[in-house]
Amino acid sequence: MGHIILGLDIEIFLDQPKYMSGELSQQAGARVVVHNAATSPLVDELGLNVQPGTASSIAVQMVRRGPMRVPTSTQPISLA
Q1: Residue 31 or residue 80, greater confidence
Q2: Which of 26, 38, 47, 75 satisfies CB 3.0 to 4.6 Å to 43 for a cystine?
Q3: Could you write out the three-class secondary structure of the chain?
Q4: Would residue 22 count as lying in a domain?
Q5: pLDDT at 3 over 60
Q6: Is residue 80 part of a domain?
Q7: Which long-range contacts (CB under 8 A, 24 or more apart) does 4-13 make?
Q8: Does 3 fall in a domain?
Q9: How many domains does the chain have?
Q10: Contacts of 37 (CB under 8 A, 6+ apart)
Q11: Is residue 70 part of a domain?
Q12: For 11-65, what is each residue's pLDDT tens digit?
């Protein structure tokens, strides 16, 4: 394993012969989603496919969104 600085290192064991013996899917691997603990994981919408037998790096960045504040001026804002 490499040295991870300020990160999370996860190793996923996929027992493909046990779980992929049928014709369930065209894909193999894992679907991973990183989400806030207070929210439900939207795996289908936001998940990333990780292929078996490979090393993958996934970078995430937290973005906080909130309501925009009300402008205090009645003057039009120039976007130029």
Answers
A1: 31
A2: 47
A3: CCCCCCCCCCCCCCCHHHHCCCCCCCCCCEEECCCCCCCCCCHHHHCEEECCCCCCCCCCCCCCCCCCCCCCCCCCCCCC
A4: yes
A5: no
A6: no
A7: 12/50
A8: no
A9: 1
A10: none
A11: no
A12: 888 877 776 666 666 677 888 888 888 989 999 998 988 888 888 888 877 788 8
